[in-house]
Write a structure and sequence with these properties.
2 copies of one chain form a homodimer. Chain A has about 220 residues and is mainly α. The first copy, chain A, is about 75% helix and about 5% strand. Chain A has 10 helices and 2 strands. Chain A starts with a helix and ends with a helix. Chain A binds a DNA duplex (30 and 30 nucleotides) through helix 3. Chains A, B: This is FadR family transcriptional regulator.
Chain lengths: ~220, ~220
DNA sequence: GTCGCTTAAGACCTCCGACGTATCACGTCA
DNA sequence: TGACGTGATACGTCGGAGGTCTTAAGCGAC
């Protein structure tokens, strides 16, 4: 195994074992390199790799720190990976989202605060009846993000955030080509919000399923 | 932005845009460094980072290649990230798995082959009535992996693979401390398999839910 | 003609030393 | 007391020198 890979494993080990805790500062490059028995250049490769996936936070002139290791932060790195997926796997991503999002919406129905409900309502009101496709899709992302956040599960929240990325382009495309896709989306958002207000988890779940399934169905018929 | 980060973005761009396709070989380090306008050392940091998340495959003595970019391969990198999560988030991971796994099992009920069913049966038979906890957990992972694979969704499959890792330790712990956890797991596996044989998606979903919920419940009461 | 070994070229691996740049802390001065 | 300047510190970047591994061409024996 290459010395750099060893260094990655050792640093990972230090964090997993608790020797390095979130927020801790690592020894400076030259010292850590000496400790781990490799050159500063090779160590930097290891640190850079761990930095890309948000394990380490490198600040020039200051030092290198362990990040908070929050699920939200770590899974955020997933969206970087997701960007590489080819268009032909969008349907598989959407299928997973179709499983997770209704469940998350149902969970949110039981936990969401009145304040959050009002915020979502205001958001939909602000958008108006005939928004641009770009505005709608941006609002769509924000709407679902807000709901999923209220599910209370940060892993679920981050996961859905990552999965939603690849379908964004598809949704824009749909908005531009399918008749009444905008109006339909707006109506479905209102329905989901109403179900949340009623604390009706099953209705919320069903509307979320319908909402995603309509995109899925359209995409399947188009590809 | 640092030159290394620029290089990461540029290489990513080349892949996403299609200039570099899966399996393609990159120019050699010295050439690519010159093309991108940075030193070979800094370029290596970029390549190493992309290599860690399985975007690039570096082979000493040969060259650097773009991986297949299969969802399975890319999400495999997620398990590396998941390893960093602290024990207090295991419940959140388990909650997500509780959503995905029943759905995957239900999907599998409609698609799984007779051959695969026989393989799963043979696997359970081979384990016997009183396996060691380690064998049981390993078999447990393999059993679920086989079922999820039959769901036909590789993104779902890889995702569950990544999520199952963190709970492995918990399951071993449970097997060692909870009375009849082994017998219960074996019975539930048989029940899931029977539902799959009957092509009964709803029964399969329910048994999978019960199976995971029992772990979740035990874990919640223990923490 | 085929198989197996030797050899050389190509590409990545590791290291070293030097210099550039950003940040923070301390001391100075108004 | 507060703002500013300065130095120490740590990361950022670079060029070059060997080292190691893979591959394939070259060559001889069967």
């Amino acid at each position: 195994m290459a010395v750099t890979d060893e260094a990655i494993e050792k640093i990972k080990g230090m964090i997993v074992s608790g020797a390095l805790r979130p927020g801790d500062r690592l020894p400076k490059e030259s010292e850590l390199a000496a400790d781990l028995g490799l050159s500063r250049n090779s160590l930097r490769e290891a640190v850079r790799a761990l930095s890309l996936i948000r394990i380490l936070d490198v600040r020039q002139g200051d030092g290198t720190y362990v990040t908070s290791l929050d699920p939200q932060l770590l899974l955020e790195a997933m969206s970087f990976v997701v960007d590489f997926h080819r268009d032909d796997t969008v349907l598989e991503f959407l299928a997973v989202r179709r499983i997770l999002e209704p469940a998350a919406t149902a969970m949110a129905a039981l936990r969401i605060s009145e304040q959050q409900l009002d915020a979502l309502t205001a958001q939909l009101d602000k958008l108006g009846d005939a928004p641009s496709v770009e505005d709608l899709v941006a609002c769509d992302l924000e709407f679902h993000r807000g709901i999923v956040h209220s599910s209370g599960n940060s892993v679920l929240c981050s996961l859905l955030d990552g999965l939603s990325g690849p379908t964004t382009r598809a949704r824009i495309w749909r908005g531009l080509t399918q008749e009444d896709a905008v109006g339909r989306t707006l109506r479905e958002h209102r329905a989901i919000l109403a179900a949340l207000r009623d604390r009706d988890a099953e209705a919320a779940r069903s509307w979320a399923t319908v909402h995603i399934a309509s995109v899925e169905q359209w995409l399947r018929s188009t590809l």
